[in-house]
Amino acid sequence: MKATTVVRRTRTAFLHHLRPLTKSLLLLSLSTHANPNPHHPSPTTIATSSRSDHISAFLRTTAPTPSWETLTATFGSLHLTHPLVEAVLLDLREPPHAKKALAFFHWSSKRSPFYRRHSLRSYCVLVHILVRAGLLLDARALLESAILYRDSASGSPAPPLLGTLWSTYEAVVPGSRVFDLLVQTCAKMRLVDLAFDACSYFSDRGFTSSLISFNSMLRVAVKSSMNELAWKVFESMLQRRVYPNQTTVETMISLMCKEGSLREMVSVVERIHGKKCAPSVVANVALVLRIVDEGRIEEGILLLKRMLQKNIVFDDIVHSLVIHSHCRMGDLESAYQRREEMINKGCSMNAFVYTCFIGAHCDRGDIVESAKLMQEMVSIVGLKPYDQTYNFLIVGCFKTGRMEEGLTCYEKMREDGFLPSSSTCNKMMGALCESRDVNKANELLTELINRGFIPNEETYLVLIDGYGRIEEAEGVVKLYYEMEHRGLNPGPAVLAAVIQNLCKCNKLNQAEKFLAVMRQKTLAPTRCIYDALITCCCEQGNKKRALQFYDEMTRNKLIPSADAFMTLAKKLFIRKRETQSLRRKFSSSLHKSTKHSKLIPRATHTNKHNQ
């Protein structure tokens, strides 16, 4: 026993004296190859791989992780480069050495006099190493720095992070967890756009983000009111066969509450299925309807098939939404085929499907067939039409000139307790105004407002044009002040409509008052406003004021319409010399503007107030 103890003590003493000698030899080896003048590289500089082997060997054999003082004392005179740092990190890529790699990474950018900033590639290499070793907090902190990385010399953005992270993926032992961590880090930093780009980038290369990552993006997008992006994330999630959990559904329900669409979606699902469904079904239906409404019919149908395979929607809902998609495309033949399949599989027809067919026939102008379907729906099947059913029929009737039938349908809608949509109301009043029955249109609006309808700017524009058509200036002015009374701030389109229609009514003084209001709001008069004012001045024989408006118009680099110019030139019986001067001004203005635009013909009803 005594001999064994003596041997152990002798070995310990030998190792104790050997360690300083080993360190001295390592320093001698490194100093032999170190570049004494980094600005003038020596021809005897050894290869980067050889130097990195010396550094990594020292770090691997030093326990525990060396301090910054030790690293400075050992490698302080060494000229570090980006390739050298990256090579050392790769030599320390095994999980037991990850903390040493992190210590060397931080020391090299802070204490080395020859090296001040890491490359983005070094950041990405170390992130891979840390994630592989399970040091996620350190990896997340480095990712945050990498996301905000900018080139130290130029201050410009670094090369794309996604591509750099992907290119360093094979250098370390592969692990896809890092890609999820990047998505979650971007979401935490509220960079949801970058998180979604990263999710798509890596998914295209075979790595699908986890449910946790998708939920992180959704939560931040909804909290940040990035509603469109939230729907894109939800759609991308289902397309990549990552199916929602309770957290996902709660987030999407919250989004629909913010948008104000939840009640409508719940009603749609209940009309199709006949009873209330789980919130997950409501969210899925809302997504499909959104895709179809954007015109991406095939994508919506494909997503429905995937949902049915996963059994996250009911059969009757899938059939109904596919019929809706075909009807939106105008493909009634496929829609009727799908209806037969729906019936053969034991699914009952519902009010939503009937409404889809009624709307498709109304779009084609086939009001007779739409009326037959309405009759079948109510009398034979025993279903109740709802607001959208009536909206389709009313608009269809007014579009085809069947105003009496449209008004009858409106009366039935009112009796059933529904109000028309804003677009339906505007179509009804527009048709009445075109037939010069403006008072009837005004009475209709009054009745709807008393029942809770909220008119929009387009509603008032239709009526203002209607009163201008019958040259009733008092009605035009009353509608303007009614808008202000109801809290609707009249914008440039409304002011333009009021001025133009007052000019039609030959009320120049009132038109100029509203022109002053427009200028008080720092709104510039448009070409159509000047045309109307010039024409009105000519009709009143106010030659001087007409020429003032014409001069003001040309100073603002606007060109009068051909009608307004000819009215100014001919109807006032101007002397020949004045006529020639006016024509020269017109020709000069026209010549200057042809480089940018052509003479625009008189605007149509839909855009004339905005030109």
Write a brief structural summary.
The protein is mostly helical and 611 residues long. The chain has helices at residues 2-33, 48-61, 68-75, 82-91, 98-110, 120-132, 136-147, 161-167, 177-188, 192-203, 211-223, 227-239, 246-259, 262-273, 279-293, 297-309, 315-329, 332-344, 351-363, 367-380, 387-399, 403-415, 422-434, 438-450, 457-469, 473-485, 492-504, 508-520, 527-539, 543-555, 562-570, 576-593.
Structural notes for this entry:
- The protein is an all-alpha fold and 611 residues long.
- The chain has a domain at 20-31 and 47-175.
- Helix content is 70%, strand content 0%.
- The chain has helices at 2-33, 48-61, 68-75, 82-91, 98-110, 120-132, 136-147, 161-167, 177-188, 192-203, 211-223, 227-239, 246-259, 262-273, 279-293, 297-309, 315-329, 332-344, 351-363, 367-380, 387-399, 403-415, 422-434, 438-450, 457-469, 473-485, 492-504, 508-520, 527-539, 543-555, 562-570, 576-593.
- Helix 6 packs antiparallel against helix 7 and helix 25 (457-469) packs antiparallel against helix 26 (473-485).
- The longest helix is centred in the first third of the chain and has 32 residues, at 2-33.
Q: Rough shape?
A: flat
Q: What is the straight-line distance between the termini? A: 107 Å
Question: Rg, please?
Answer: 38 Å
**Would you identify the regions where 5 or more consecutive residues have pLDDT less than 50?**
1-47, 153-158, 595-608
Helix coverage percent of residues?
Answer: 55-70%
Mean pLDDT: 82
Number of strands: 0
Strand content: under 5%
Biggest sheet: strands, sense, closure? Answer: none
Structural class: mainly alpha
* Tally of contiguous helical segments: 32
